[in-house]
Amino acid sequence: MADQNPVDYKNTIQLSEMDIYASIDIGDLNHYIPTRDLERLLNDGLRGQAVGHLASRTRSKFVKGAVCGALGYPVPSRFARTQPKFPGQQLDVYVQKSLNLQIWNEQIAPARRYAIIQELESGLIGRVRVIDGAELSLMATTGTVTSKYQARLELGRATNELVSAQDTDPMKAHVKRGAAIGPAVSPIADPVSGQLLPVAEIFDRLKPLIGQSFADPGVNQERNRGAALHAMVCKALRYGRYEDSGKFPDIRHQLLEIKLQTSSTIDLGLVLPSSTDGMDIAKLGSHKPRHCDTRYAMFFAETDGSKVTLTHLFVTTGADFFTRFKRFEGKVTNGKIQIKLPELFFES
């Protein structure tokens, strides 16, 4: 089908009734769409579509459906987790609001095509560029891979769960029920023996937050959502003010990490909660605080686009974290390759 109009490929795929997972030999004259024609079809089918108002998961599903329509494929009822996302066309799809492209969990494949879709400030799709992995790899000059651990949250019947009834053994000598937190105490100060609330009391003080809401700053605003929750937690623990250093754990004075979940995937950073490695925190007596001594307050929430409502609370020590939450199977970490796209990438 060389020298054909790109729409001819789309029509042939429609008539074949094959789905996006059907195997196609690279270079197949009837069904494998040449890169230049692939780019034209995607621009014709996606340009001008509104995606800025969609939450990240909804947006991903919408865009994949739009790609199916642009190429002549039926939209599956459920998209399988495959690499690449469109195996038949050896095609992966990324929507970019910035020029910082992140590729998760895999290396760049030289023979794969990468559709990089521009999201404009207006929230509309702009231009679509399709390049192969060989070209993309030339832009990955540092080859930097950042890894972080992840786990899965499964909700139970209870809206609040105290996973750890007690703190870790070394911490028991330093926690005090009803510990007074003076108005001048900073939530990001180093912890002090005798000023740490027991994990069960942290749970009791945070339970009343379930059912409360705060204004939703918008999709893709996880940092601002987290800051709003962080302020609520500081108040519930009876601190006189909210402060955030951006360091782990969030409320350093209580060795307390706060997490806000609107999906089942829990990002854990670079260190496992159960790690027995010491932290860069002053000693409590003779005890050097470890990651497993950290207390975690994890909130699950729902949003209707205008407000975020807290629906579930889980409180645990790092030592007990994986007794309740499952680490992702098959991978110790999830990694990403960071690529800085050229300034004129979408104009070339």
Distance between the termini: 27 Å
Helicity, as a percent range: 10-25%
Largest sheet composition: 5 strands, antiparallel
Q: What is the CA-based Rg, rounded?
A: 24 Å
Q: Name the overall outline.
A: elongated
Structural class: alpha+beta
The ordered H/E elements are HHHEEEEHEEHEHEEEEHEE
How many separate domains make up the residues? 2
Counted by DSSP, the helix tally is: 7
Mean pLDDT: 90
Find the count of extended strands (DSSP E, 2+ residues): 13
Poorly predicted regions are none
Percent strand equals: 15-25%
Assembly type of the chains comes to: single chain
Summarize the structure in words.
With 348 residues, the chain is an alpha+beta fold. The chain has 2 domains: 6-144 and 335-347, no CATH class; 154-324, no CATH class. Helices cover 21% and strands 23% of the residues. It is built from 7 helices and 13 strands. The strands form 3 sheets. Strands 2, 5, 9, 12 and 13 form a 5-stranded antiparallel beta sheet that branches. Strands 6, 7, 8, 10 and 11 form a 5-stranded mixed beta sheet that branches. Helix 2 packs across helix 3. The two termini are 27 Å apart. The mean pLDDT is 90.
Keywords:
single chain; alpha+beta; 2 domains; 7 helices; 21% helix
